[in-house]
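Reminder to self: keep the SMILES exactly as supplied, no canonicalising. Ligand is fe (ii) ion.
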Amino acid sequence: MSPDTVGAASLALAATLLVTLRAHHPATVAHALRVARLVAGIAPHLPGEPYHGRIAEVYAAAALHDIGKLLVPVAILAAPRALSPDEWTCVTYHPSHSRAILARGGASPLVRAAAWGHHERWDGTGYPRRLAGMEIPAIARLVSVVDAFDAMSEDRPYRAGLTPAAALREIAQGAGSQFDPELVACVLAQGLLTDDIAA
Ligand SMILES: [Fe+2]
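Structure tokens returned for the bound complex:
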């Protein structure tokens, strides 16, 4: 299949699945679309343009990164408080749920890699597979940074969101532990992680 065909199929799959996710938990879809817009804006500026000609697929991959939350009870997703340990365990299953849903939907390897790998950490303490460093697929390392930036910036019922500047400081502090340090350096040096990039 050509990159255009894969991109179109990926966007169609995202449209279908996100309609279902919106009925389950609208805030997750709003988050996913913000992340997708930022990721698609950053991708062309990465060294070597690894996603040249594949931005539609990249957008869809980022938009679908949390699709496994379809299988996390809404009472947990919308809980107006910090989660209990059992509830948190339930949330940590969502990348594996995503993997199953996206495999059934015939998603491309890139789309599946973003969803299954976006909660891995550079230092190997993430989930679900405890991958480390370059073992983590590149698209998942990229979605991880943007996902964290958006999540930290967002107001929650039990805490206020960080300002963009404060969220960027947190991203910088996580370089080499949570995040790919070269990727963070590249994104911060070029000022790519702002709402303006894809506006
Ligand atoms: Fe997630």
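Points to follow up:
The CA atoms of residues 44 and 52 lie 7 Å apart.
Residues 65-66, 94, 118-119 surround fe (ii) ion (CB under 6 Å).
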